[in-house]
Structure formats: C-alpha cells, structure tokens
Amino acid sequence: MIDVDLIKKLVDIVSYSNIEELRVGDRDIKITIKKFSSGKVYRAQDISKEAETPQESPRSEEKGEEVVYITSPIVGTFYRAPNPDAPPFIDINDEVKIGQTVCIIEAMKLMNEVKSDYNGIIRKILVENGEPVEYGQPLFLLEPTGENA
C-alpha cells in the first residue's frame, strides 16, 4: 500500500533541497522523484492555447516574445496574499524582481513563499486564489526584462 503522506514529504524534501532526483523503494514499490527547473523559457507561439487564464493582461503578446512560467515548487493551495485581508503580492502588469515573493503555497499547514527567479512583468495569473495546485504547475506568465542572471 502506498503511503501518500510519505510521498508528499519526499516531494517536499526534494523541492527544498539541492537534490535533483530521489529514488526510494522496497521489493513491492519503487518511487522516483525528479526536480524540474521552474525557469523554463518558452516562446509565445509555443504556449498552449488550452490553458485558460482567469485574468488576462490588456496587452497582446507578440509572436516570438520570450515568456517564463513561474511554477509551483510543491503540491498545495495557492494564495495571492499573505492573509485574507491583505492585498495580493502581485497583480497583472506588475514588475517583479528576482527573489520577490509572488504568492504563497500552503502545504501541510505550512505557508511556503514562492519567489520569482526572474526580473520581469507579470502578464497572466494562471490560477485562482485558494485553488489547489500541483508540483510544477504554472502559476504566472512573466515577460522577462532587464538582466536575469
């Protein structure tokens, strides 16, 4: 029988460490957890049109424009603000800097800040506040600006 809580803990361990891949198992089951980069760069024409966005930027995207997804580092619940009465960390067309908190993912009663790996402008918010998210799920669409070293 698979212990789901153990799997969640292992995913969190990989997410918050320098470990790129973790393999565990016994004679009945083997589990491999791999970390994927959250800063994969895409071209606008490669973005799936199936991804519905709850909020859209009024600015249209040009073909060939570089965009970056900010993805969820863990499985949990997505929150745009630090608490229900506070304003959101960011909004559409906001400029963000490397290391700036963009949202919180609640996992196992812990609030985990998600920070931007890039300087840029938020062009789309891809999930609703309070919505469950999966590991690696795109949360924001960011147009890189300036230096992103």
C-alpha-based Rg, rounded? 17 Å
Kindly estimate the percentage of residues that lie in beta strands according to DSSP.
35-45%
Tally of contiguous helical segments: 1
Please give the domain count. 2
Poorly predicted parts? 38-63
Helix and strand content put the structural class at: mainly beta
What is the global morphology? Answer: globular
The CATH architecture of the largest domain comes to: Beta Barrel
CATH fold naming of the largest domain: OB fold (Dihydrolipoamide Acetyltransferase, E2P)
The total beta strand count reads 12
Distance between the termini: 45 Å
CATH class of the largest domain: Mainly Beta
Summarize the structure.
This protein is 8% helix and 37% strand. The protein is mainly beta and 149 residues long.
Task: Write up this protein.
The structure is a single chain. The chain is built from one helix and twelve strands, in the order H-E-E-E-E-E-E-E-E-E-E-E-E. The protein has 149 residues and is mainly beta. It has two domains: 1-35, no CATH class; 36-144, Beta Barrel (OB fold (Dihydrolipoamide Acetyltransferase, E2P)). The strands form three sheets. Strands 3, 4, 5, 7, 10 and 12 form a six-stranded antiparallel β-sheet that branches. It has a four-stranded antiparallel β-sheet with strand order 9-8-6-11, with no helix packed on it. Strand 8 (101-107) and strand 9 (110-115) form a beta hairpin. The radius of gyration is 17 Å and the shape is globular.
SSE layout and pairing:
Blueprint: H1 4-15, E1 21-25, E2 30-34, E3 41-43, E4 55-56, E5 66-71, E6 76-79, E7 95-96, E8 101-107, E9 110-115, E10 120-125, E11 132-133, E12 138-144
Antiparallel strand pairs: 1-2, 3-5, 4-10, 5-12, 6-8, 6-11, 7-10, 8-9, 10-12
